Amino acid sequence: MTQHKVIFDTDPGVDDALALYYLVRHPQIDLLGVTTVFGNAPVAMTTRNARFLLQAWGHDAPVHRGAEGPMTPDMPPEFWPTHIHGDNGLGNHPTPDATVDGPETAAQFLIDTIRAHPGEVRVLAVGRMTNLARAVQMAPDIAGLVRDVVIMGGAFRVPGNITPAAEANIWGDPLAADVVFGADWPVIAVPLDLTTRTFMDSATLADLGARGGAGMQLVADLSQGYVGFYQAAGYDGMLVHDCTAAVYLTDPDLFTLTQGEVRVLSEGIALGLTLMNPADRQGPLGAWEGRPRQSATLDGQPDAILARIAQVCTA
Protein backbone atom coordinates (compact mmCIF):
# COMPACT_ATOMS: atom_id res chain seq x y z
CA MET A 1 0.00 0.00 0.00
CA THR A 2 1.45 3.34 -1.08
CA GLN A 3 2.20 5.69 1.79
CA HIS A 4 2.06 9.42 1.21
CA LYS A 5 4.33 11.53 3.43
CA VAL A 6 2.37 14.77 3.85
CA ILE A 7 2.95 18.18 5.38
CA PHE A 8 -0.33 20.04 5.81
CA ASP A 9 -0.07 23.84 5.54
CA THR A 10 -3.32 25.24 6.87
CA ASP A 11 -5.30 28.04 8.56
CA PRO A 12 -8.05 26.26 10.56
CA GLY A 13 -10.79 27.22 9.61
CA VAL A 14 -13.80 24.95 9.44
CA ASP A 15 -13.23 23.37 6.04
CA ASP A 16 -9.57 22.92 7.04
CA ALA A 17 -10.80 20.78 9.96
CA LEU A 18 -12.53 18.32 7.64
CA ALA A 19 -9.41 18.14 5.46
CA LEU A 20 -7.21 17.51 8.50
CA TYR A 21 -9.55 14.78 9.71
CA TYR A 22 -9.39 13.14 6.27
CA LEU A 23 -5.58 13.14 6.48
CA VAL A 24 -5.60 11.75 10.02
CA ARG A 25 -8.05 8.97 9.13
CA HIS A 26 -6.69 7.89 5.74
CA PRO A 27 -4.63 4.69 6.06
CA GLN A 28 -2.25 5.75 3.29
CA ILE A 29 -1.39 9.17 4.75
CA ASP A 30 1.67 9.60 6.93
CA LEU A 31 1.10 13.08 8.36
CA LEU A 32 4.62 14.35 9.07
CA GLY A 33 3.53 17.70 10.45
CA VAL A 34 1.24 20.70 10.26
CA THR A 35 2.35 24.24 9.46
CA THR A 36 0.01 27.13 10.14
CA VAL A 37 -0.58 30.47 8.48
CA PHE A 38 -2.85 33.48 8.86
CA GLY A 39 -6.07 33.47 6.85
CA ASN A 40 -9.31 32.22 8.33
CA ALA A 41 -8.07 33.67 11.63
CA PRO A 42 -4.83 35.20 12.99
CA VAL A 43 -1.92 32.76 13.00
CA ALA A 44 -1.84 32.47 16.80
CA MET A 45 -5.42 31.24 16.63
CA THR A 46 -4.95 28.93 13.64
CA THR A 47 -1.97 27.36 15.41
CA ARG A 48 -4.04 26.84 18.56
CA ASN A 49 -6.84 25.32 16.48
CA ALA A 50 -4.54 22.88 14.68
CA ARG A 51 -3.13 21.66 17.99
CA PHE A 52 -6.60 21.40 19.52
CA LEU A 53 -7.90 19.27 16.65
CA LEU A 54 -4.93 16.92 16.57
CA GLN A 55 -5.11 16.42 20.32
CA ALA A 56 -8.85 15.74 20.12
CA TRP A 57 -8.18 13.06 17.52
CA GLY A 58 -5.21 11.53 19.35
CA HIS A 59 -2.62 12.38 16.69
CA ASP A 60 0.89 13.50 17.62
CA ALA A 61 1.97 15.30 14.44
CA PRO A 62 4.02 18.40 15.32
CA VAL A 63 2.47 21.82 14.66
CA HIS A 64 4.71 24.68 13.53
CA ARG A 65 3.54 28.27 13.63
CA GLY A 66 3.98 30.13 10.36
CA ALA A 67 3.50 33.52 8.78
CA GLU A 68 1.35 36.11 10.51
CA GLY A 69 1.05 38.33 7.44
CA PRO A 70 1.70 38.47 3.68
CA MET A 71 4.92 39.05 1.81
CA THR A 72 3.01 41.13 -0.77
CA PRO A 73 3.67 44.84 -0.17
CA ASP A 74 0.85 47.37 0.24
CA MET A 75 -1.85 44.74 0.69
CA PRO A 76 -5.34 45.89 1.68
CA PRO A 77 -6.01 45.42 5.40
CA GLU A 78 -6.67 41.79 6.34
CA PHE A 79 -10.16 40.99 7.54
CA TRP A 80 -10.91 37.85 9.49
CA PRO A 81 -13.97 36.00 8.07
CA THR A 82 -15.71 35.60 11.42
CA HIS A 83 -19.09 35.49 9.65
CA ILE A 84 -17.97 32.20 8.09
CA HIS A 85 -15.54 30.60 10.57
CA GLY A 86 -16.69 32.19 13.82
CA ASP A 87 -14.78 34.36 16.25
CA ASN A 88 -12.38 31.54 17.12
CA GLY A 89 -11.85 30.12 13.61
CA LEU A 90 -13.71 26.88 14.40
CA GLY A 91 -17.31 27.97 14.20
CA ASN A 92 -17.30 29.14 17.85
CA HIS A 93 -17.03 25.53 18.98
CA PRO A 94 -15.44 25.50 22.46
CA THR A 95 -11.64 25.50 22.28
CA PRO A 96 -8.86 26.29 24.77
CA ASP A 97 -8.82 29.99 25.65
CA ALA A 98 -5.12 30.58 25.06
CA THR A 99 -3.79 31.34 21.60
CA VAL A 100 -0.28 30.24 20.63
CA ASP A 101 2.58 32.71 20.70
CA GLY A 102 6.16 31.89 19.84
CA PRO A 103 8.61 31.94 16.96
CA GLU A 104 7.77 31.33 13.32
CA THR A 105 9.17 27.88 12.53
CA ALA A 106 7.00 26.68 9.64
CA ALA A 107 9.29 27.55 6.73
CA GLN A 108 12.31 25.92 8.37
CA PHE A 109 10.26 22.81 9.21
CA LEU A 110 9.25 22.55 5.55
CA ILE A 111 12.89 22.85 4.47
CA ASP A 112 14.25 20.37 7.00
CA THR A 113 11.54 17.77 6.41
CA ILE A 114 11.74 17.90 2.62
CA ARG A 115 15.53 17.56 2.79
CA ALA A 116 15.19 14.62 5.18
CA HIS A 117 12.90 12.73 2.77
CA PRO A 118 14.10 13.58 -0.76
CA GLY A 119 11.52 12.82 -3.44
CA GLU A 120 8.88 11.71 -0.94
CA VAL A 121 7.21 14.68 0.75
CA ARG A 122 3.92 16.01 -0.57
CA VAL A 123 2.90 19.45 0.66
CA LEU A 124 -0.82 20.12 0.88
CA ALA A 125 -1.43 23.86 1.30
CA VAL A 126 -4.96 25.12 1.87
CA GLY A 127 -4.34 28.67 3.10
CA ARG A 128 -2.20 31.61 2.05
CA MET A 129 0.96 30.41 0.29
CA THR A 130 3.30 32.52 2.44
CA ASN A 131 5.05 29.67 4.27
CA LEU A 132 5.78 27.81 1.03
CA ALA A 133 7.08 30.91 -0.72
CA ARG A 134 9.38 31.74 2.19
CA ALA A 135 10.66 28.18 2.35
CA VAL A 136 11.56 27.95 -1.34
CA GLN A 137 13.17 31.40 -1.26
CA MET A 138 15.24 30.44 1.79
CA ALA A 139 16.25 27.07 0.31
CA PRO A 140 15.74 26.88 -3.48
CA ASP A 141 17.09 23.30 -3.47
CA ILE A 142 13.87 21.97 -1.92
CA ALA A 143 12.06 22.55 -5.22
CA GLY A 144 13.98 19.62 -6.65
CA LEU A 145 13.48 17.46 -3.56
CA VAL A 146 9.75 17.70 -2.90
CA ARG A 147 7.45 15.18 -4.57
CA ASP A 148 4.74 17.75 -5.31
CA VAL A 149 2.85 20.73 -3.93
CA VAL A 150 -0.95 20.47 -3.94
CA ILE A 151 -2.79 23.70 -3.17
CA MET A 152 -6.39 24.65 -2.65
CA GLY A 153 -6.50 27.96 -4.42
CA GLY A 154 -7.21 29.97 -7.50
CA ALA A 155 -10.12 30.65 -9.81
CA PHE A 156 -9.15 30.11 -13.43
CA ARG A 157 -12.41 30.08 -15.39
CA VAL A 158 -14.93 31.06 -12.70
CA PRO A 159 -15.35 34.17 -10.52
CA GLY A 160 -13.42 34.46 -7.29
CA ASN A 161 -14.95 34.38 -3.83
CA ILE A 162 -13.22 37.47 -2.41
CA THR A 163 -13.47 39.63 -5.54
CA PRO A 164 -14.71 38.72 -9.01
CA ALA A 165 -11.05 38.20 -9.88
CA ALA A 166 -9.64 36.34 -6.91
CA GLU A 167 -10.03 33.32 -4.67
CA ALA A 168 -9.34 33.91 -0.96
CA ASN A 169 -6.12 31.94 -0.46
CA ILE A 170 -4.47 33.55 -3.48
CA TRP A 171 -5.87 37.03 -2.76
CA GLY A 172 -4.45 36.94 0.78
CA ASP A 173 -0.85 36.88 -0.47
CA PRO A 174 -0.71 37.02 -4.27
CA LEU A 175 3.04 37.58 -4.47
CA ALA A 176 3.61 34.43 -2.43
CA ALA A 177 1.29 32.50 -4.75
CA ASP A 178 3.21 33.77 -7.79
CA VAL A 179 6.45 32.57 -6.19
CA VAL A 180 4.94 29.13 -5.52
CA PHE A 181 3.61 28.75 -9.07
CA GLY A 182 6.95 29.97 -10.43
CA ALA A 183 9.21 27.63 -8.46
CA ASP A 184 10.63 24.58 -10.21
CA TRP A 185 8.52 22.05 -8.36
CA PRO A 186 5.29 20.40 -9.56
CA VAL A 187 2.24 22.35 -8.38
CA ILE A 188 -1.30 21.01 -8.67
CA ALA A 189 -3.92 23.67 -7.92
CA VAL A 190 -7.38 22.56 -6.85
CA PRO A 191 -9.33 25.75 -7.58
CA LEU A 192 -12.85 27.10 -7.22
CA ASP A 193 -13.55 25.78 -10.71
CA LEU A 194 -13.98 22.35 -9.06
CA THR A 195 -14.44 23.02 -5.34
CA THR A 196 -17.54 25.15 -5.86
CA ARG A 197 -19.15 22.04 -7.35
CA THR A 198 -18.19 19.85 -4.38
CA PHE A 199 -21.07 20.50 -2.01
CA MET A 200 -21.90 18.41 1.04
CA ASP A 201 -25.55 18.83 2.07
CA SER A 202 -26.61 19.11 5.70
CA ALA A 203 -28.19 15.67 5.82
CA THR A 204 -24.98 14.03 4.62
CA LEU A 205 -22.89 15.95 7.16
CA ALA A 206 -25.23 14.87 9.96
CA ASP A 207 -25.10 11.26 8.78
CA LEU A 208 -21.30 11.27 8.68
CA GLY A 209 -21.21 12.70 12.20
CA ALA A 210 -23.54 9.99 13.43
CA ARG A 211 -21.64 7.16 11.72
CA GLY A 212 -18.10 8.45 12.05
CA GLY A 213 -17.67 8.41 15.81
CA ALA A 214 -16.53 11.22 18.09
CA GLY A 215 -13.90 12.52 15.69
CA MET A 216 -16.26 13.08 12.78
CA GLN A 217 -18.97 14.32 15.14
CA LEU A 218 -16.58 17.07 16.25
CA VAL A 219 -16.16 18.10 12.60
CA ALA A 220 -19.94 18.12 12.11
CA ASP A 221 -20.50 20.13 15.27
CA LEU A 222 -17.96 22.85 14.51
CA SER A 223 -19.24 23.07 10.92
CA GLN A 224 -22.72 24.27 11.87
CA GLY A 225 -21.93 27.97 11.62
CA TYR A 226 -20.28 27.35 8.25
CA VAL A 227 -23.46 25.57 7.11
CA GLY A 228 -25.46 28.53 8.40
CA PHE A 229 -23.42 30.86 6.20
CA TYR A 230 -24.46 28.89 3.13
CA GLN A 231 -28.04 28.52 4.33
CA ALA A 232 -28.31 32.31 4.43
CA ALA A 233 -27.51 32.24 0.72
CA GLY A 234 -30.08 29.54 0.03
CA TYR A 235 -27.87 26.43 0.11
CA ASP A 236 -28.45 23.72 2.73
CA GLY A 237 -24.95 22.40 3.31
CA MET A 238 -21.35 23.47 2.80
CA LEU A 239 -18.62 23.52 0.19
CA VAL A 240 -15.67 21.29 1.08
CA HIS A 241 -12.92 23.28 -0.63
CA ASP A 242 -9.95 22.06 1.40
CA CYS A 243 -10.95 18.42 1.70
CA THR A 244 -11.38 18.26 -2.08
CA ALA A 245 -7.68 19.10 -2.35
CA ALA A 246 -6.86 16.46 0.26
CA VAL A 247 -8.65 13.82 -1.82
CA TYR A 248 -6.38 14.66 -4.77
CA LEU A 249 -3.44 13.25 -2.79
CA THR A 250 -4.99 9.79 -2.60
CA ASP A 251 -7.38 9.66 -5.56
CA PRO A 252 -5.96 11.70 -8.47
CA ASP A 253 -8.03 9.64 -10.91
CA LEU A 254 -11.11 11.59 -9.75
CA PHE A 255 -9.63 14.82 -11.14
CA THR A 256 -8.98 16.19 -14.64
CA LEU A 257 -5.82 18.25 -15.05
CA THR A 258 -5.21 21.25 -17.27
CA GLN A 259 -1.60 22.34 -17.66
CA GLY A 260 0.11 25.62 -18.36
CA GLU A 261 2.32 28.34 -16.95
CA VAL A 262 0.64 30.40 -14.22
CA ARG A 263 1.03 34.01 -13.12
CA VAL A 264 -0.72 35.75 -10.23
CA LEU A 265 -1.46 39.47 -10.29
CA SER A 266 -0.27 41.25 -7.14
CA GLU A 267 -1.62 44.74 -7.67
CA GLY A 268 -4.57 46.62 -9.11
CA ILE A 269 -8.25 45.81 -9.39
CA ALA A 270 -7.50 42.20 -10.35
CA LEU A 271 -5.19 41.55 -7.38
CA GLY A 272 -5.03 37.80 -6.78
CA LEU A 273 -6.14 36.79 -10.28
CA THR A 274 -4.68 33.43 -11.39
CA LEU A 275 -3.87 33.45 -15.09
CA MET A 276 -2.84 30.23 -16.82
CA ASN A 277 -1.24 30.10 -20.24
CA PRO A 278 -2.75 26.81 -21.49
CA ALA A 279 -0.28 24.29 -22.84
CA ASP A 280 -1.99 24.24 -26.25
CA ARG A 281 -2.13 28.02 -26.73
CA GLN A 282 -0.16 29.31 -29.71
CA GLY A 283 1.55 32.66 -29.38
CA PRO A 284 4.26 34.55 -27.45
CA LEU A 285 4.62 33.81 -23.76
CA GLY A 286 5.50 37.33 -22.59
CA ALA A 287 5.29 37.47 -18.76
CA TRP A 288 4.89 33.68 -18.70
CA GLU A 289 8.28 33.14 -20.40
CA GLY A 290 10.54 30.79 -18.44
CA ARG A 291 7.86 29.75 -15.96
CA PRO A 292 7.42 26.05 -15.18
CA ARG A 293 4.34 24.34 -16.54
CA GLN A 294 1.97 23.62 -13.63
CA SER A 295 -1.40 21.88 -13.30
CA ALA A 296 -4.91 22.82 -12.19
CA THR A 297 -7.88 20.54 -11.61
CA LEU A 298 -10.42 22.55 -13.55
CA ASP A 299 -12.73 19.53 -13.70
CA GLY A 300 -13.35 16.32 -11.82
CA GLN A 301 -15.97 14.06 -10.29
CA PRO A 302 -17.60 15.90 -7.34
CA ASP A 303 -19.93 13.03 -6.37
CA ALA A 304 -17.09 10.53 -6.29
CA ILE A 305 -14.92 12.94 -4.30
CA LEU A 306 -17.68 13.34 -1.71
CA ALA A 307 -18.14 9.58 -1.57
CA ARG A 308 -14.43 9.14 -0.91
CA ILE A 309 -14.54 11.69 1.91
CA ALA A 310 -17.49 9.84 3.44
CA GLN A 311 -15.75 6.47 3.17
CA VAL A 312 -12.53 7.64 4.82
CA CYS A 313 -14.12 9.77 7.55
CA THR A 314 -16.49 7.03 8.73
CA ALA A 315 -14.12 4.06 8.44
TrEMBL record:
One of its GO terms (molecular function) is purine nucleosidase activity. Residues 6-281 form the Inosine/uridine-preferring nucleoside hydrolase domain. Coiled coil: none annotated. Pfam families: IU_nuc_hydro. The gene is PLESTB003182. Keywords: Glycosidase, Hydrolase. GO terms for biological process: purine nucleoside catabolic process. This is Inosine/uridine-preferring nucleoside hydrolase domain-containing protein. GO terms for cellular component: cytosol. The keyword Hydrolase applies. Belongs to the IUNH family.
